[in-house]
Specification:
By secondary structure, the chain is an alpha/beta fold. It contains ten helices and seven strands. It has one domain: Rossmann fold, CATH 3.40.50. Strands 3-2-1-4-5-7-6 form a seven-stranded mixed β-sheet, with helices on both faces. Helix 2 packs across helix 9, helix 3 crosses helix 4 and helix 8 packs antiparallel against helix 9.
Length: 267
């Protein structure tokens, strides 16, 4: 069974829309007005600290950053711990703005870098997430850690995928409520800043970008709130000897999702 099949459910599911946007300069401008310079999704100081802690990052480490957008995530992590960052971005415009290396989300390949840690975020399609994680494992040294920030429809499949890639899941958090609050707070701040002549004075491209962003983010919040989508922060440690290639044809027992997800314990 392919890795993509691990994350593709047997029945249709809903996935996040926003990371699938083909970015334009007006939409990047709207995103940065929402989340801050160099950011296209919520990533504040609390998230930065959580990632640094989960990946055990220090100034001596090398971090692979996948999907970090136009530079803001890398800057915040470097400022927090001094780690060396190798950034990759699938969207051409975001990669250009952030000085990140390009990669194909369809057939990703980051080489065998022997990196100490990886942060994977803003990968909108669940099947692509599996392929990206497989490529990341090849780029990590044995014992290296990966932190995944993802909005997915099948959280249990993410756990199964990581285990199939010879990883030990060290922490798992349902960040759905926090994600919803961050999105709503961001749009409330932007609305408060729109005084004066208002949106009507913006160029047409900027108004269109604003509407597309608003529709996508509000849809994501609605899905998070009704349980059709889950926003996860997962950290895992890679096992195996140097040069090992992750097995893609053997499913390891993923255990009970009650071990991972608080919503399912009370369900």
């Amino acid at each position: 069974m392919s890795l993509s099949a691990l994350l593709v459910p047997s029945r249709p599911r809903v996935v996040a829309l926003l990371p699938e946007v083909v970015w334009s300069l007006p939409e990047v401008a709207v995103a940065q007005a929402l989340w801050g310079q160099g950011l296209v999704s919520p990533f504040g100081l609390e998230e930065t600290s959580a990632v640094v802690g989960a990946a055990s990052l220090s100034a001596a480490d090398r971090l692979i950053l996948i999907g970090g957008g136009p530079g803001g995530v890398a800057r915040q992590i470097v400022e927090a711990c001094g780690v060396r960052v190798l950034a990759y971005e699938a969207d051409p415009l975001l990669g250009l703005l952030g000085g990140a290396g390009a990669f194909s989300a369809v057939r990703p390949d980051f080489g065998r870098l022997g990196a100490d840690a990886a942060l994977v975020m803003n990968i909108g399609c669940e099947a692509r997430l599996a392929d990206v994680l497989a490529a990341v494992m090849l780029a990590l040294r044995p014992g290296g850690r990966v932190v995944v920030l993802a909005s997915v429809a099948a959280p249990e499949a993410v756990m199964r995928c990581l285990r199939c890639l010879r990883c030990v899941v060290e922490s798992y958090e349902d960040r759905s409520d926090a994600r919803s609050r961050a999105v709503i707070d961001g749009w409330a701040r932007l609305a408060a800043q729109l005084g004066g002549p208002g949106v009507a004075s913006w160029p047409r491209a900027a108004r269109q970008g604003l509407m597309r962003q608003a529709e996508a983010w509000m849809e994501e919040v609605a899905r998070l709130r009704r349980g059709a989508l889950w926003h996860l922060r997962v950290s895992a440690r890679r096992l195996g000897a140097e040069g090992d290639c992750p097995e893609t044809d053997t499913l390891l027992d993923s255990g009970s999702m009650a071990d991972y997800h608080p919503r399912l314990i009370s369900a």
